[in-house]
TrEMBL record:
This is Cell surface SD repeat-containing protein. It comes from Companilactobacillus bobalius DSM 19674.
């Protein structure tokens, strides 16, 4: 993962695979061998260079040129020679440890110079830490490739900002350890023998390991340790723990995440959705490396500053109306009244993405009455396939989902939905609204709600419920020959409860008639000398005749019937000596259409 000290003596810079030089010129092969600072420093490094002309038989290089990690010599013959370094750590005159071999370098010696037509600069790493630590990488190597590949002049190295990083003649780049950050341009130049010059540059970053981040309010920010390479982690490295800290203002740092041996692609900290109070907060990462038989080694990198920007969510504006096509009116609004079974309703929905951000995987949802039937759906005047919408059902209603795919910034979409009303059996009010869903460019969910829509359903029928009429008791020697209804049959209680759900309300009349004499319920041969009278003000009408109780005009709702105590049907006793008892008479209530 590119962090953690070197735990075995090894080569941090191998020889180049090929060197091309002119006969008689000096050959320089650079390697870099490092040991862990925690290793046994009683051991002494021993270097041996070997050479071969056939890569099979190897001989030790002349002792005058041997004994260092780099090789300097002047070849004396034209052609190919192979070189390799072996390194071991020993206690002088007593012990020889393991031997480590470098890669093989092939040296081509030419009689005449070969000029480079161009050169390309490369670096082993693109990010260096400006921290003095054996855990983080502060050095790397630059190397070049030329055209033709066997150009014989070596590359000269330079940097444009030596206060950030320096480079030596072998391309070994070292970052500053003073905390300075920035971009360094590394330039490689080849001065050909024919006086032509070719060069190329490569930029590398020097920093504290973390980069400042910005995030819009309501979004998340992600901090990653820079300069990590999973291919560089030493197999013998012990546990590596990454501790992430947050600091607000000058408060104490707070541990917000800790992971041991995270995968190289999982070394990051993602904040919660940020708020304005998170602005200018600082984030740090502590790298703790624990090796066998040693103390913990750690380094704190950072800080990185979080800047919270104003919200930048998409903004989808929704305008929706409904129309009752069956009524053949031009009305289009957010409320429909007196919708009945079989009506065809139209939804017109306008969506506008009033922002600079596209929305992906967009769709809308619309609740519908449980038995609603879909007739047509159009998006931007084009009928959509059945696969582009989905109708699901729950206990209360249906949910219509229409897929819209991508919704481009500053674009509009028009959706037309035609439905048919089904199975309306009672008065009902149904509320709904359009919900828009999608993913913004950050893959965060975005939703927007439209205006509320209201449909009031009716069953297109008139129903009436009639209560039995009950009067004051019949007693001997009654002196009051007019019996009033009991309180349960008087205002505010309704005698006839009427639910008029007709959409076309034609004029109606309600009649009442006493169809039979009052008979004693225990002995029907006993008649009550009485009749019902219908009082309207001070006047009355005998209900032995068909009597008009109430009537409506065209379009008027037929309301329920209720009377005050001294109004409506009252029982009149025709003599003062009635036989006490419970009497009943058949009454007929009848609605009649007053338009013939």
């Amino acid at each position: 993962m590119g962090i953690g000290p070197i735990t075995t003596s090894g080569y941090t810079e191998q020889p180049k695979e090929h060197y091309y030089i002119i006969l008689g010129e000096k050959l320089h092969i650079e390697t870099n061998v490092e040991r862990t600072p925690l290793s046994n420093f009683l051991l002494v490094a021993r270097y041996h260079w070997w050479q071969s002309t056939d890569s099979i038989t190897w001989n030790e290089v002349d002792k005058k040129s041997n004994g260092n990690s780099s090789l300097d010599l002047i070849p004396t013959t034209v052609g190919k020679t192979y070189y390799q370094l072996s390194t071991s750590y020993v206690i002088p005159h007593a012990f020889i440890g393991s031997i480590f071999y470098s890669k093989v370098a092939t040296v081509d010696v030419e009689r005449e110079p070969i000029s480079a037509k161009n050169v390309k600069v490369h670096t082993k790493a693109d990010y260096l830490f400006n921290i003095d630590s054996n855990i983080t990488r502060g050095t790397t190597f630059a190397y070049s490739t030329s055209n033709p590949f066997n150009a014989t002049e070596s590359t000269k190295w330079s940097v444009d900002k030596p206060d950030l990083a320096t480079v030596n003649g072998d391309g070994h780049i070292s970052a500053n350890t003073n905390g300075k950050s920035g971009i360094v341009k590394v330039t490689g130049t080849i001065n050909n023998k024919d006086n032509t010059i070719v060069s190329d540059s490569k930029e590398i970053t020097v920093g504290n390991g973390l980069i400042d981040r910005t995030a819009h309010e309501g979004k998340k920010a992600r901090f990653e340790i820079q300069g990590l390479d999973g291919n560089e982690r030493d197999d013998e490295l012990g546990d590596v723990t990454i501790n992430w800290y947050k600091q607000v203002n000058s408060q104490q740092m707070e541990l917000v995440k800790s992971e041991t041996n995270p995968a190289s692609n999982d070394i990051f900290y993602e904040t919660h959705r940020v708020h304005p109070e998170d602005n200018n907060s600082k984030y740090y990462a502590e790298i703790v490396v624990k090796q066998a038989k040693s103390n913990d080694n750690s380094v704190l990198i950072g800080p990185a500053t979080l800047t919270v920007l104003p919200p930048n969510d998409p903004k989808v504006e929704i305008s929706s109306t409904i129309t009752n096509k069956t009524l053949n009116t031009d009305y289009s609004g957010t409320q429909l009244n007196e919708v009945i079974d079989g009506d065809e309703l139209n939804y017109n929905i306008d969506l506008y993405n009033n922002s600079k951000r596209d929305i992906h995987d967009a769709y809308i949802t619309l609740p519908l009455h449980l038995y609603t039937q879909i007739e047509h759906i159009k998006v931007d005047d084009a009928e959509i396939d059945n696969s582009d919408y989905l109708l699901t059902t729950n206990e209360k209603n249906q949910i219509l989902r229409i897929n819209l795919n991508d919704f481009i910034a500053h674009h509009e979409k028009n959706i037309f939905i035609e439905i048919k009303v089904k199975n309306i059996h009672e008065r009902e009010s149904f509320d709904s609204q359009i919900d828009f869903h999608g993913l913004d460019p950050d893959s965060d969910e975005y939703t927007s709600q439209g205006n509320k829509l209201n449909i009031n359903y009716i069953n297109n029928q008139l129903t009436a419920s009639v209560k039995d009429l009950h009067f004051e008791p019949i007693t001997l020697f009654t002196h009051n020959n007019l019996k009033y209804r009991i309180s349960a049959n008087n205002d505010p209680n309704e005698v006839i409860s009427i639910d008029d759900q007709r959409r076309k309300r034609r004029p109606l009349k309600l009649f009442l008639k006493q169809e039979s004499d009052f008979e004693n319920k225990d002995n029907k041969s006993i008649k009550l000398p009485a009749d019902l009278r219908y009082y309207n003000g001070d006047s009355f009408t005998s209900l032995t005749n068909k009597t008009l109780i109430n009537e409506t005009t065209y379009g008027q709702i037929f309301n329920s019937i209720k009377w005050h105590k001294n109004q409506g049907p009252l029982l009149h006793i025709n003599n003062s000596n009635p036989i006490p008892g419970d009497y009943s008479s058949k009454l007929t209530w009848q609605f009649e259409d007053s338009i013939t």
